[in-house]
């Protein structure tokens, strides 16, 4: 766990909750330290197998094709489902190397980190005629560069030979400037696509997703702080505020929208594809920048998610206008949600959802992209597993918060399946169909930036010693610095937090659940009997109601309470 000694650490109550939780968790009993070292080394070998094959067969192109041991210049294909307007003359941006830099530091390989940083400093250019997805390019390339720049200048991992003169920051600034024309719309919401050399193209599509315009603030905010140029953060913040202003009266957002008119296109949304990192960036921006505005947006939207999307441990989709369920599907991307719930301290809810995702992993051997909850079967076409990190990520967060050795066993299962099903001579290959385990010729860069990193951190978190980090949605660490905080979130810091460490009940304490369940607080004491933040109180304290809408969510079963014929809210299984 991140060190309690750091001054910045005590500024964030969220991580503080995490600190408190891990401070008194019992030492891991199940997996001995020899086993931990063994598993860590297994992950290290996976990373180098993926990395070295990339460096030999694909670098400086974007990604490795592990079955044919060749490459793909895929940066312009990311998010480009129909593969439209592909560049004619583009030879890659060393994407997988950019994505690997922070993982090399987490694994302690400073020599290779330095070699990569210097190569990029000399050779990377964004003056290329390539149309890229703003969201993907932001989280992978800008995030990778900003994080690597901070790590290269950090006291722990500072590059030694005096050859590093902020070249990665210069590259990041250059890339950030190439993003800015995308934001020149009547709404301030950015186009989803931008040509790195020529800006927004003629007849460019005006459709984008909620995550496409609502999850830019970590990278662009960090870039503004590092360069002193406020334009990056201002553009991302303006887009985020506009997006938030488009929420429904239920505090729900849709999945896709038009950046010119500011109208919604797809009204149904959930916590998975197209929306996921919007929620993630609200809470992480609050942790990184300490600005209450992010907290207020997050708090309202988290409550809305728990109220309208959650059904027991599952999350379905709902229409933003009515809150009515639309699609009952589990998607692989949703598996990040328990990790986010750990950041807000909602351990019980995180634990129960994470278990369901793991059962599905266990059932198929890997996590299928989409599973139809209502039919209990796989989606007919989305049966693939592209080496996604989300379950490993949540497992890492849950282990950090609970130190329950069961999560290491989960990690072991994930590692064993990855090696068994996806490791090939030339790297790691995506699974095309989880029912046949047929492979696909693609090693995604996030396998190196996230999947391997979170699995490694599960068994060796020494990288986190003495410094708290926020991990971007692509797994790139950004340190939490007091000097980056606009305003300290005083209201959320217990004045005497060190003494709380000794009280067992604090395991249950979640600053968020305190806000979600005011009805169950017992006079401001920390011994709250709170199981889960899914609880939503009934509208009236006396539980009287006229319609179901006036009833909340039951705190133990997480079911929607309904209005009985007698006019009281309750869990009526058989409505008379
Ligand atoms: C890409 O590579 C090809 C073949 O090596 C070369 O002809 C072309 O000039 C390169 N394009 C750029 C933009 O560097
Ligand atoms: C660092 O990475 C390089 C390239 O993969 C590898 O050859 C070297 O053994 C690694 N060093 C350590 C200490 O792991
Ligand atoms: C830049 O790329 C060229 C060609 O691959 C290489 O020879 C050179 O060493 C690279 N620069 C650095 C600093 O690695
Ligand atoms: C997680 O859930 C399991 C099964 O319900 C339970 O045994 C375990 O104690 C829970 N752990 C936490 C930290 O809530
Ligand atoms: C710390 O705060 C808690 C909760 O407000 C309180 O119950 C406890 O007495 C305080 N401890 C000390 C040492 O001040």
Q: Can you describe what's shown?
A:
With 576 residues, the chain is mainly alpha-helical. It has two domains: 33-484, Glycosyltransferase (Alpha/alpha barrel), CATH 1.50.10.10; 534-575, no CATH class. Helix content is 41%, strand content 10%. It has helices at residues 13-23, 33-57, 95-106, 110-123, 134-153, 167-179, 210-214, 217-227, 231-245, 276-289, 292-308, 337-343, 347-364, 390-402, 406-422, 446-459, 497-500, 511-516, and strands spanning 63-65, 70-72, 131-133, 193-195, 207-209, 256-258, 264-266, 268-269, 310-311, 314-315, 318-319, 329-331, 370-372, 377-378, 423-424, 427-428, 430-433, 438-440, 469-471, 477-479, 562-563, 569-570. The strands form ten sheets. Strands 5-6-7 form a three-stranded antiparallel β-sheet. A three-stranded antiparallel β-sheet has the order 12-13-14, with no helix packed on it. Helix 10 (276-289) packs antiparallel against helix 11 (292-308), helix 12 (337-343) runs antiparallel to helix 13 (347-364) and helix 14 packs antiparallel against helix 15. It is globular, with a radius of gyration of 23 Å. The N and C termini lie far apart (52 Å). Bound molecules: 2-acetamido-2-deoxy-beta-D-glucopyranose (5 copies). One 2-acetamido-2-deoxy-beta-D-glucopyranose binds next to loops. One 2-acetamido-2-deoxy-beta-D-glucopyranose binds at residues 496, 499, 526.
What are the distinct ligands in this entry?
2-acetamido-2-deoxy-beta-D-glucopyranose
Tell me the major beta sheet.
3 strands, antiparallel
Total number of distinct structural domains:
2
Question: Which architecture of the largest domain does the CATH hierarchy give at level 2?
Answer: Alpha/alpha barrel
Q: What is the beta-strand fraction?
A: 5-15%
Please give the number of β-strands: 22
Principal-axis shape: globular
The CATH topology of the largest domain turns out to be Glycosyltransferase
Binding site for Ca(2+): 473
GO molecular function, one term: mannosyl-oligosaccharide 1,2-alpha-mannosidase activity
Organism: Musa acuminata subsp. malaccensis
Keywords: Calcium, Endoplasmic reticulum, Glycoprotein, Glycosidase, Hydrolase, Metal-binding, Signal
């Amino acid at each position: 766990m991140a060190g309690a000694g750091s001054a910045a650490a005590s500024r964030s109550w969220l991580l503080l909750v995490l600190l408190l939780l891990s401070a008194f968790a019992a030492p891991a009993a199940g997996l001995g330290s020899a086993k931990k070292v063994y598993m860590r080394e297994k992950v290290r070998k996976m990373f180098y197998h993926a990395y070295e094959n990339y460096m030999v067969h694909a670098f400086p192109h974007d990604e490795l094709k592990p079955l044919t041991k060749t490459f793909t210049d895929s940066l312009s294909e990311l998010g480009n489902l129909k593969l439209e307007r592909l560049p004619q003359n583009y030879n890659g941006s060393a994407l997988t190397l950019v994505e690997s830099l922070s993982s090399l530091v987490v694994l302690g390989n400073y020599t290779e980190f330095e070699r990569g940083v210097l190569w990029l400093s000399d050779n990377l250019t964004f003056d290329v005629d390539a149309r890229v997805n703003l969201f993907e390019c932001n989280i992978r390339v800008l995030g990778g560069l900003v994080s690597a720049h901070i790590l290269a200048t950090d006291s722990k991992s500072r590059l030694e030979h005096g050859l590093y003169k902020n070249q990665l920051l210069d590259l990041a600034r250059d890339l950030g400037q190439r993003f800015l024309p995308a934001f020149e719309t009547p709404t301030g919401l950015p186009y989803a696509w931008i040509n790195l050399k020529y800006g927004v193209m003629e007849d460019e599509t005006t459709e984008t997703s909620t995550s496409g315009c609502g999850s830019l603030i970590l990278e662009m905010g960090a870039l503004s702080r590092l360069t002193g140029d406020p334009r990056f953060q201002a553009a991302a913040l303006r887009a985020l505020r506009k997006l938030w202003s488009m929420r429904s009266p239920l505090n729900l957002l849709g999945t896709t929208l038009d950046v010119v008119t500011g109208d919604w296109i797809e009204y149904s949304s959930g916590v998975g594809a197209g929306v996921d990192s919007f929620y993630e960036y609200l809470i992480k921006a609050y942790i990184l920048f300490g600005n209450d505005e992010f907290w207020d947006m997050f708090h309202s939207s988290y409550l809305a998610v728990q109220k309208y999307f959650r059904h027991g441990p599952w999350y379905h989709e709902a229409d933003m206008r009515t809150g009515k369920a639309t699609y009952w599907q589990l998607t692989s991307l949703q598996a990040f949600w328990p990790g986010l719930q750990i950041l807000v301290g909602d351990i019980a809810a995180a634990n129960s959802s994470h278990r369901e995702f793991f059962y599905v992993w266990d059932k198929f051997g890997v996590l299928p992209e989409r599973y139809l909850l209502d039919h209990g079967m796989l989606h007919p076409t989305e049966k693939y597993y592209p080496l996604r990190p989300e379950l490993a990520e949540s497992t890492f967060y849950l282990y950090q918060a609970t130190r329950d050795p069961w999560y290491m066993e989960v990690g072991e299962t994930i590692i064993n399946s990855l090696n068994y099903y996806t490791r090939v001579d030339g790297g790691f290959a995506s699974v095309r169909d989880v029912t046949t385990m047929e492979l696909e010729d693609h090693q995604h860069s996030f396998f190196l930036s996230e999947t391997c990193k979170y699995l490694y951190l599960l068994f060796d978190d020494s990288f986190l010693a003495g410094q708290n980090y926020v991990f971007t949605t692509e797994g790139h660490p950004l340190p939490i610095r007091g000097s980056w905080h606009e305003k300290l979130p005083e209201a959320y810091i217990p004045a005497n937090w060190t003494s709380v460490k000794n009280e067992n009940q604090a395991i249950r304490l979640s600053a968020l659940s305190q806000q979600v369940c005011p009805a169950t607080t017992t006079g401001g004491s920390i011994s709250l009997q709170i199981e889960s933040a899914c609880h939503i109180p009934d509208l009236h304290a006396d539980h009287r109601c006229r319609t179901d809408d006036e009833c909340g969510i039951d705190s133990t079963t997480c079911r929607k309470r309904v209005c009985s014929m007698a006019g009281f809210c309750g869990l009526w299984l058989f409505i008379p």
